[in-house]
């Protein structure tokens, strides 16, 4: 019985497709791009493995290749060749320099001629930051005939070898050759990294400083929180132990410190949301958004996230300590008091059952405090990058501004419930009350926000932030150049050319944010830390 013509034709087509696929696979294997790595250390091996699994033919260069059994250290490197330094340089046009920088000069000076015209990718880091020069610039001086690219130094050997789901990790790239930057950017993309162009090789100084940083954005907020905590703690020790013996010294560790954490937390939280109000005042005063903020205000605006997270941490400590001390002995004003009278001439056994439950003050304080903490927890969750990426601007602003001020208002209510009964009973001592003193800055923050929320004021502020100026001037910034129009700085990362267009004023020393490859983006050059619309946190 003969085969159906249509089915036989389909079978032949499938065979042809399979043959074509096999040919494509063979050709892709034959055309694996070749790169060389000078060095056989931990980072070099991790880099070789990552490059090999990204589709590259990797050659390792060693001074003693016969003694380097790479495959014995890692079976995944069985297809990686280990050759001499000279053979590695000859075999590849792209060379990764993965040796300790102390040995770089000796290594490169022997092969200056052979390295001419090749792309050298410097992955080294410094032990101390330097603003005078960088390792990459020193390599360029050692081998002036090659093209040096600074890249991959911010990726650790562990992340290079194990973290394959790392599309969010950035690779900073700097080189005087735009073509070389594009080549290295494509390599970074193949390795599932996100390349970021830093421009010329002088930017390698900034890139090499990056791994040496230790939470630089947290130093200011943390120092501020510590200072506020110390001030409140000294005040508490004075009123509770020195001026009057209210507590025993053994109660300092939880009872008194709990008050200090609470007062510091609400102070830091209010300062977090007070920054945007100060920025709004500056814009209203100058009648324009095109104004460079003072350095202290600029840093304050940039540190709002850290201040908010610190306040959440302090309030979390306060919550834990409050749960531990939740009893009539510690919080007597929160519970109903029970009076027991025992007859004088009692001759029979007497059993007493004492039950204490919260009064209105205790229950109201707990309710408002719990709601405030839940709202703060939600706001804290929105700061996670994975959550932030799912929010649009309106949602993010609602969480950070509206819910933030709501959490601050609830926190103030929590303190008021505990403080008002004491204020009414002893109004002449209100100036010494910790519940009154710790609410001064929060009240200022909420009142200023309320004023700026009035429709008339809000419309005026939004008018300023849309570009309107009260005074008809080209630019009111002190550092502005004499230009007839305000300008934006537009960068096309593919073409690498700067364009000029109208509508903002630039300052000569204004830093420009770094852009990812493969996108044409316009950025505002209106000064350090300045945004078109300041988030009203």
Task: Explain this structure.
- The protein is α/β, with parallel strands linked by helices.
- It has two domains: 32-212, 3-Layer(aba) Sandwich (Rossmann fold), CATH 3.40.50; 216-333 and 355-465, Four Helix Bundle (Hemerythrin (Met), subunit A), CATH 1.20.120.
- 50% of the residues lie in helices and 11% in strands.
- The chain is built from 19 helices and twelve strands.
- It has helices spanning 5-30, 42-53, 70-73, 85-91, 104-109, 135-142, 157-162, 178-190, 204-209, 216-242, 252-286, 295-302, 304-324, 360-381, 385-388, 393-425, 434-437, 440-453, 455-465, and strands at 33-38, 56-62, 81-84, 94-97, 119-122, 147-150, 170-175, 194-197, 487-492, 497-502, 515-516, 520-523.
- A nine-stranded mixed sheet has the order 3-2-1-4-5-6-7-8-11, sandwiched between helices.
- Strand 1, helix 2 and strand 2 form a beta-alpha-beta unit.
- Helix 11 runs parallel beside helix 18 (440-453), helix 13 (304-324) runs antiparallel to helix 14 (360-381) and helix 14 (360-381) packs antiparallel against helix 16.
- The radius of gyration is 33 Å and the shape is elongated.
Keywords:
three-stranded antiparallel beta sheet, 2 domains, Four Helix Bundle (Hemerythrin (Met), subunit A), alpha/beta, 537 residues, Rossmann fold, nine-stranded mixed beta sheet
In short:
The chain is 50% helix and 11% strand. The protein is built from 19 helices and twelve strands. This is Pyrroline-5-carboxylate reductase catalytic N-terminal domain-containing protein.
CATH architecture of the largest domain, by name, is: Up-down Bundle
Q: Strand tally, please?
A: 12
**Percent in strands:** 5-15%
Sheet with most strands: 9 strands, mixed
Q: First CA to last CA: what distance?
A: 81 Å
Spatial sequence of strands, sheet with the most strands = 3-2-1-4-5-6-7-8-11
């Amino acid at each position: 019985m003969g085969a159906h013509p249509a089915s036989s034709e389909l079978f032949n087509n499938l065979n042809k497709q399979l043959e074509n696929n096999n040919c494509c696979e063979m050709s892709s294997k034959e055309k694996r791009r070749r790169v060389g790595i000078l060095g056989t250390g931990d980072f070099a091996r991790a880099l070789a493995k990552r490059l090999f699994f990204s589709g590259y033919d990797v050659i390792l260069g060693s001074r003693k290749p016969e003694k380097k059994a790479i495959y014995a250290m890692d079976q995944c490197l069985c297809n990686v060749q280990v050759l001499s330094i000279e053979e590695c340089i000859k075999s590849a046009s792209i060379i990764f320099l993965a040796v300790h920088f102390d040995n770089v000069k000796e290594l490169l000076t022997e092969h200056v001629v052979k390295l001419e015209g090749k792309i050298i990718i410097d992955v080294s880091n410094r032990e101390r930051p330097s603003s005078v020069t960088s390792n990459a610039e020193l390599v360029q001086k050692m081998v002036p005939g090659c093209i040096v690219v600074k890249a991959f130094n911010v990726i650790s050997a562990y992340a290079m070898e194990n973290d394959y789901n790392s599309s969010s990790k950035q690779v900073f790239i700097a080189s005087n050759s735009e073509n070389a930057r594009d080549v290295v950017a494509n390599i970074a993309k193949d390795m599932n990294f996100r390349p970021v162009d830093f421009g010329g090789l002088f930017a390698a100084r900034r890139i090499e400083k990056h791994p040496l940083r230790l939470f630089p954005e947290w130093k200011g907020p943390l120092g501020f929180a510590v200072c506020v905590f110390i001030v409140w703690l000294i005040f508490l020790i004075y009123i509770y132990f020195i001026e009057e013996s209210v507590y025993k010294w053994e109660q300092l560790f939880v009872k008194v410190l709990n008050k200090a954490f609470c007062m510091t937390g609400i102070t830091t939280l209010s300062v977090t949301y007070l920054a945007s109000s100060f920025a709004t005042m500056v814009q209203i005063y100058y009648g324009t958004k095109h104004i460079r903020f003072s350095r202290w205000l600029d840093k304050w605006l940039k540190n709002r996230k850290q201040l908010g997270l610190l306040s959440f941490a302090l309030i979390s400590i306060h919550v834990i300590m409050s749960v531990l001390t939740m009893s009539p002995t510690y919080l007597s004003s929160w519970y109903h008091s029970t009076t027991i009278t025992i007859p004088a001439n009692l001759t029979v056994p007497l059993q007493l059952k004492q039950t204490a439950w919260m009064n209105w003050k205790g229950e109201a304080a707990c309710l408002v405090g719990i709601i405030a903490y839940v709202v703060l927890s939600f706001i804290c969750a929105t700061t996670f990058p994975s959550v932030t990426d799912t929010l649009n601007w309106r949602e993010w602003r609602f969480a950070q501004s509206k819910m933030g001020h709501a959490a601050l208002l609830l926190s103030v209510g929590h303190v008021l419930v505990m403080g008002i009964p004491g204020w009414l009973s002893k109004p002449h001592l209100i100036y010494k009350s910790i519940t009154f003193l710790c609410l001064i800055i929060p009240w200022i923050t909420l009142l200023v926000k309320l004023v700026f929320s009035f429709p008339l004021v809000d419309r005026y502020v939004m008018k300023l932030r849309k570009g309107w100026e009260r005074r008809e001037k080209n630019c009111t910034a002190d550092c502005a150049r004499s230009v007839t129009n305000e300008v934006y700085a537009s960068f096309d990362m593919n073409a690498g050319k700067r364009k000029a267009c109208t509508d903002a004023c630039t300052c000569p020393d204004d830093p420009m944010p770094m852009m990812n490859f493969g996108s044409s983006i316009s950025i505002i050059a209106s000064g350090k830390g300045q945004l078109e619309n300041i988030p009203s946190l």
